[in-house]
Structure formats: C-alpha cells, structure tokens
Specification:
Elements lengths: L6 H18 L12 H10 L5 H14 L3 H6 L2 H7 L6 H19 L7 H4 L7 H12 L9 H9 L8 H11 L5 H14 L25
Length: 219
C-alpha cells in the first residue's frame, strides 16, 4: 500500500491497520491479573517502570495481605513500600496507593468511580491509569491507553507525529473509532511485546509490514 495522500486514503489505511490487528490479536486483553476494579487500579499504579510479569508476582500476596481499599487506606506508606519494593519506585508508589485508597474510601464509598473526571482526582491515576481501569474493569471507552508500546508503535505506523502521551492520545482518539479504543490499546501493547519490539522488531513476521513506513525496519 502506497503512502496515503488524501483524507480518505488515510482513513482506509487506519481501517486496514485495525483489520490486521484484529486478525493478529483477536482476543487481546490486559496482562495485569486482577479480580475487581480496585485491584486493577493498584496493579496499574505498580506497573509504572515495571514489567507486568513482576507486578503479577507481587499482587497475589499483596491482595491477600490487604484485601480491600479500606485495608490499603489504613496502612502506613512506609510499611506498604516494603511490600512492593521489587516493583521499583516503591516509596512513590506506596504513597499513591495509600492516597488512592483513602480517596476511594472517603469520596467514592470504597468503589472505584466510573468516569474519567472522577478517576483523575485519585492519587496515582493519570490518564493512562484511568483509561486502563475504566476500559478493562468497566468496559468504558474513556480514551486510548498510551503506554511506551503504544507511543512507539503509533509513531512507527505514522498514526501520530506527537511525542507527548496526552497529545498522542488525542490523535489516536480522532482516527480510531471509539468502539475500538479499548481493544486497540491491548492489541498494540501485545504487538509491542510479541513482534514490534523496541530493539529489534520482527518486521518479516509482522502482518502490518506492508503498510508500515518505519525507517528502522528489519529485513
């Protein structure tokens, strides 16, 4: 497919990217293990600068020790920090999680809220985290999750020229149909782990290869 020049051609190319992602990753889901929205919120906060694999190793014991938001709200951040030490940046993460728990308990009756506006008032929940929780836990398409994979691959696929995650999200929300926002993020994140890896992308194995214009494509 040639590089599109008109708006109609660009729209068709995006539709083709989405079709091919559907073929490659039809059942893509969030990799963070959780049983409810609160657990997903905690896991997502822990996932900053940390692998999902590591987070999934930490959270079973963590949620056994602190089963509810009320339990997290009652613990001192310095105590929680020791429980999550292996995820990195544990002091900041523990303050965010305890702050989030207190907010959820005091203002939202112990239930993670269902709107982006309310989510953004919670400590540790910027747009990426809010979108993860609303999309995965509630099926609410509040935006597009922009993590490092989505940021990198959106640029490689020429879906945005922005480098700021908020501006990237705005670009993606304009061209990806709203009903695809949640799945699209899961698919691109999975693609970034499986094929479009940062250091050595496996372009020859990629179904998007023929419509990708990345300058550092591999043979």
């Amino acid at each position: 497919m040639k590089r599109p020049k008109t708006a109609a051609e660009r729209k068709e190319r995006v539709a083709e990217i989405l079709r091919r992602l559907d073929q490659m990753y039809p059942a893509a889901t969030c990799a963070l293990h959780h049983h409810n929205p609160w657990e997903l919120l905690v896991a997502t906060i822990l996932s900053a600068q940390c692998t999902d694999k590591r987070v999934n190793e930490v959270t079973p014991g963590l949620f056994a020790k602190y089963p509810t938001p009320q339990d997290f709200a009652a613990v001192r951040p310095e105590v929680l920090a020791n429980d999550i030490r292996s995820t990195g940046f544990f002091n900041n993460k523990s303050k965010s999680i305890v702050g989030a728990a207190k907010k959820v308990v005091s203002e939202f009756g112990g239930q993670v809220p269902r709107t982006i506006e309310e989510m953004l008032t919670i400590p540790g929940a910027a747009r990426k985290t809010a979108n993860v929780v609303l999309g995965t836990a509630y099926g609410i398409a509040s935006g597009v999750v922009v993590d490092t994979h989505v940021q990198r691959i959106s640029a490689r696929l020429d879906l945005t020229k922005q480098t700021d995650p908020v501006k990237i999200e705005q670009d993606l929300m304009k061209i990806v149909p709203r009903e695809k926002w949640i799945l699209f993020s899961h698919q691109v994140i999975l693609h970034g782990r499986a094929l479009c890896v940062a250091r050595s992308p496996k372009c020859a194995e990629c179904a998007l290869n023929s419509i990708c214009y990345a300058k550092d494509k591999t043979a």
